[in-house]
Predict the structure of Glutamate--tRNA ligase.
Amino acid sequence: MSAPDAARIVTRFAPSPTGFLHIGGARTALFNWLYARGRGGAFLLRIEDTDRARSTPEATAAILDGLTWLGLDWDGEATSQAEGAARHAEVARAMLAAGTAYKCFATPEQIEAARETARAEGKTTLFDSPWRDAPADTHPDAPFVIRLKAPRDGETVIEDAVQGRVAFRNDHLDDMVLLRADGTPTYMLAVVVDDHDMGVTHVIRGDDHLNNAARQTLVYRAMGWDVPVFAHIPLIHGPDGKKLSKRHGALGIDEYRRMGYPPAALRNYLARLGWSHGDAEFFTDTDALAWFDLPGINRAPARLDFRKLDHLSGQHLATAPDAAVLHDLDAWLAATGAAPLTDARRDGLARALPSLRERARTLPELIEKAHFVLTDRPIVPDEKAAKALDDVSRSILRELTPRLHNVNWQREDLEAAVKAVAEDHGLGLGKLAQPLRAALAGRSVTPSVFDMMLVIGRDETLARIADAAA
């Protein structure tokens, strides 16, 4: 694995493939992507699949699919941590040869007994191996692990780009296992080796890894490697301030896709979740790439707020290019197993978008409001709309039909014709709008009746009104 140019910013996202892509993991990936891409650097993807019992190809595929949908592209191929096991073991043996690690022959039973004694005496349960300084000629012919020879005195200090200066007493750090008795590397060793070999300059991850940073720093120093910049970001909490869980709603990124949030809106929301740039709430990828920096990340946990997400989603739908909205609609229909749009319905939807986009917060809401252009005659009104089509309303619709036959098909003339018929019956325009909604869309909540008329055209409008008036 060759390291990129040392002068270049390199970040990475390193999920474990044991389940779906969590919303918190997606935000971590986004922060890494923004930091690297905004500085012309590289964003790498590593699948940390050393837990072979729990790692699955399906979970890996879900992570890749989720990142792709979210629009977070990575450089090169995604790498597998498990495939680097030989390299990890090589580093452990190099540390052994250099005297920064040692062979420990203590059995699990001996370790547990030592901890039980320490508990009984009220002492620390960190295991103090009797083999730490044992001469090589006293080593038995028995299974052993390789442990880091951690310093006993002083402090290990992390100058964290988010958390600030964090100091760990070295007498609180154990001689962690680097290589197990079966020759397999531990996660703590593998992470350091992979980050070094991949040329990672900035490790941006959740603050639940902050304690790991101290132990991993000891491995960097033992190997004489440069320690990357650490930036430990706070976790995401629910609206109640408690750790995010299923009771707070969607956890996996795929759930947000199925709920119909456009990827651009979710990127905007996740970027703002724990990071700020002045008072900016709604912004584009271009803005985020230019603005994002580590000092803007808050130390306090961020709180998930679906109302804010809905608001931002609506803003993105209102301002996105038509082609982007149609692309997102296609992806949402595929993700939910719905039938794809026909060419005719796609054309109709494209014509209708200007009248739909400012009234929808999510893609399914947009589809619902586009019902009038996605349905075919005869229009079957729902229960609420059907109540607007009583005998009086049908009579008025029959009277309206010849007026619409001869009018210029533009908004002002359509409004004038409908308003004139309403006034003839002593009605306001709103009173006639409801049966028109029922006739044109079969719904009581729709875009403007005049927007609908302009989108579906004269012939279809007249046919639908005639059906409803019959």
